[in-house]
Design brief:
The chain is mainly alpha-helical and about 90 residues long. Helices cover about 80% and strands about 0% of the residues.
Length: about 90
């Protein structure tokens, strides 16, 4: 049975990005603040028109070089604000 656990552990490592959960939990508040500020400035504009500015600001604030992680963080921050009804 140990080989089965090793196999599924190996399979999980292929599909799960190591460290992403720590990165998201560390910077979600920063991203929500940045995205919320940009949402207020870009009132009534669609998210896709100003998401690049949000991506750049979050990337600068976090110092992250992996653009996909920053994109995920920005999207989650925007969804967080939408769920709260702030956007």
């Amino acid at each position: 049975m140990g080989w089965l656990n090793k196999f599924f552990g190996w399979l999980k490592n292929i599909f799960v990005r190591n460290g992403l959960d720590k990165f998201l939990s560390k910077y979600i508040d920063v991203a929500v603040e940045i995205v919320g500020g940009l949402a207020a400035v870009n009132n009534n504009a669609d998210f896709h028109t100003w998401k690049d500015a949000a991506w750049l600001r979050v990337k600068e604030a976090t110092g992250e070089v992996r653009g996909n992680w920053v994109a995920i963080l920005v999207a989650l921050a925007f969804e967080n604000l939408k769920a709260k009804g702030e956007v």
